[in-house]
Amino acid sequence: MDLILHGQNAVVTGSTSGIGLGIARLMAQAGARVTLNGLGKPEEVAAARAEIGALMGGGDAPFIHADMTKPEEIRAMIAEIGVVDILVNNAGIQFVSPIQDFPDEKWDAIIAINMTSNFHAIKAALPGMLARGRGRIINIASAHGLVASPNKAAYVAAKHGVVGMTKSVALEIATSPVTINAICPGFVRTPLAEAQVAPLAAKFGVSEEVALRDHLLEKQPSKRWIEVEDVARLALWLCGPGSGAVNGAALSIDGGWTAS
Ligand code: NAD
């Protein structure tokens, strides 16, 4: 792979698993110095640090245990890294319930982790990017940043908020060389998403294949998972040459979901 990110510092929030780890992997392969973050189990964190560290030439990758619900920890993480050339706001959680029964603390946690953390990280990292005249901010939103599904009021509100924040900041920095964009994936094959297939199969009394196609991927016209690597490639492209005019975009990668 071309080392298009050689000499650049990247931080990917929530990169101990899933999409964040995939983005960290590809950016490390492209030559970036990647700092990991997340709240994974110790063995999960250790495995991620070893894997990404090996891609960067050996040793453990840097890891900062900042809780995305805590603004001061987010600010401290950006300060500790110092020079941040690429900020990927990826950490996220989900909770599903009709709004009447939606626990207040789940609403607060989803808004804090999935949306407000982006605000604090961008606010902390952007001044340095503007001063150095280079930088890329990528917010991992969702198809749910553009359209809704029932029982996901907090997640849909947070992801719509991320898309709106992305547009607003893009206008503020439009004359600079720094860009900010949102990536809006449909269902991505991560352990978290795959774990939803078996319960659906049991609930509807169908095979896992049918549960995946007709229930989990009901709204995804391709009827196929989006792969982590595909999301990571889009994120990498946004950091590479030729992407400078893409600013404030909400880029769908959803098998046609939001085309309908
Ligand atoms: P995941 O559960 O595999 O990873 C989530 C990451 O966020 C983990 O590293 C976890 O430790 C971290 N995290 C959670 N709470 C945190 C906190 N308080 N502080 C710091 N880190 C925290 O999930 P994923 O499927 O890879 O999702 C990653 C992002 O992609 C999320 O923002 C999610 O909303 C978005 N997304 C996922 C899908 C999908 O189908 N998997 C689709 C669209 C968007």
What does this structure look like?
The structure is a single chain. With 260 residues, this protein is of the alpha/beta class. The protein has helices spanning 18-29, 42-55, 71-81, 104-132, 153-172, 191-194, 197-204, 208-216, 228-239, and strands at residues 9-12, 33-37, 63-64, 86-89, 136-140, 179-185, 250-253. Strands 3-2-1-4-5-6-7 form a 7-stranded parallel β-sheet, with helices on both faces. It starts with 8 loop residues before the first strand and ends in a 7-residue tail after the last strand. Bound molecules: nicotinamide-adenine-dinucleotide. Nicotinamide-adenine-dinucleotide (NAD) binds at residues 13-20, 37-40, 67-69, 90-93, 113-114, 140, 142, 185, 187-188, 190, 192-193.
Summarize this structure briefly.
With about 260 residues, this protein is an alpha/beta fold. Helix content is about 45%, strand content about 10%. The chain has a 7-stranded parallel beta sheet, sandwiched between helices.
